[in-house]
Write a structure and sequence with these properties.
The chain contains twelve helices and nine strands. It has about 240 residues and is α/β, with parallel strands linked by helices. Helix 9 packs parallel to helix 10. The longest helix is centred in the N-terminal third of the chain and has 16 residues, at about 60-75. The strands form two sheets. It has a six-stranded parallel β-sheet, with helices on both faces. Strands 5-4-6 form a three-stranded antiparallel β-sheet, covered by helices on one side. The two termini are about 20 Å apart. It has helices at about 5-15, 25-30, 45, 50, 55-60, 60-75, 85-95, 110-115, 170-180, 200-205, 220-225, 235-240; strands spanning about 20-25, 100-105, 120, 125-130, 135-140, 155-160, 185-190, 210-215, 230. It has two domains: about 1-35 and about 80-120 and about 170-240, TPP-binding domain (Rossmann fold), CATH 3.40.50; about 35-80 and about 125-160, SIR2/SIRT2 'Small Domain' (2-Layer Sandwich). Bound molecules: ligand BV8 and zinc ion. Zinc ion binds near residues 130, 135 and 155. Ligand BV8 binds near residues 26, 106, 122, 161 and 218.
Length: about 240
């Protein structure tokens, strides 16, 4: 389909849709100045994921892992949502739509932008979890007097983030699957679509009959399977589009 007609068809589908899922990844926060994972200059270029994003890495060197996440907290705290986050939040507020933002991001910027129904598949930078008693707490510190920080029970606190080899939070994942199966359009934004089971969510939507629109800076597996693919920056495409 020629590019203009493709844009028009996707735009019409989104204008008509009553139930929409935005499935997002690190590319959405790139224009807020946060590094993605797998692009040139991305986080995984500076450090191998096995050294900071696995339970084994944390068991071996919790202070090293915490320093990685404290640096990410500091970067996220110093930034704000960009036009892509804001366009998605604004779209949900108009016309009484049922919108879910299913995100792999842990930076909390969708919520700051005003999105109400945000399902965080990989946890949050802004929570800790106790290794001993399991207590989860909101925590926005960007430094601790003692690293790793300790729970009141004496146990070690870890970031409440889903690391490689760990299960996704079941209730969040079920809610995301359900939203995917119900939606008419699934908009996939700023993700390389290589981390599972999260990357399966748009396929679940497609199997249940949704149209898929991909907005991404490069072609991905999702883009190849999608009904529509708009190549470029989310912060430039989405505000115009939604
Ligand atoms: C599980 C920590 C089971 C959080 C993250 C084969 C071998 C080994 C393992 C596996 C395998 N197959 C499957 C697995 C399992 C593994 C997996 O998927 N591995 C892949 C990588 C091979 N998955 C897991 O381990 C998951 N758990 O399977 O559990 C289980 C079940 C029961 C009981 C016990 C266990 C857990 C996965 C959790 C991973 N956690 N990191 C953190 O620190 O943030 S993954 C990491 O990748 C991030 O969380 C991130 O959310 C996720 C996805 O990355 P993206 O967001 O897509 O970012 P990326 O940089 O890749 O891409 C950015 C895109 O944006 C690019 O395409 C770029 O072009 C585009 N872009 C850039 N700028 C813009 C833009 N687009 C638009 N506009 C722009 N401006
Ligand atoms: Zn505890």
């Amino acid at each position: 389909m020629p590019r203009d007609r493709e844009r028009l068809a996707a735009r019409e589908a989104l204008a008509r849709a009553r139930r929409v899922v935005f499935f997002t990844g690190a590319g959405v926060s790139a224009e807020s100045g946060l590094a993605t994972f797998r692009d040139a200059g991305g986080l995984w270029e500076g450090v191998r994921p096995e050294r900071v994003a696995t339970p084994e890495a944390f068991a071996e060197d919790p202070a090293f892992v915490w320093r990685f996440y404290l640096a990410r907290r500091a970067a996220a705290a110093a930034t704000s949502p960009n036009p892509a986050h804001r366009a998605m939040a604004e779209y949900a507020r108009s016309d009484h739509r049922e919108v879910a933002v299913v995100t792999q991001n842990v930076d909390g910027l969708h919520q700051v932008a005003g999105s109400a129904n945000v399902l965080e598949l990989h946890g949050s930078l802004w929570r800790t979890r106790c290794e001993a008693c399991g207590a989860v707490a909101e925590d926005r510190a960007t430094s601790f007097s003692e690293v790793p920080p300790r729970c009141r029970c004496g146990g070690m606190l870890r970031p409440d983030i889903v690391w490689f080899g760990e299960a996704l939070p079941p209730t969040v994942f079920q809610a995301a699957s359900q939203a995917a199966r119900r939606c008419e359009v699934c908009v996939v934004v700023g993700t390389s679509a290589v981390v599972y089971p999260a990357a399966g969510i748009p396929y679940e939507a497609a199997r249940a009959g949704a149209r898929i629109l991909v907005v991404n800076a490069e072609e991905t597996e999702h883009a190849r399977e999608a009904d529509w693919f708009l190549e470029g920056k989310a912060g430039e495409i989405l505000p115009d589009f939604l």
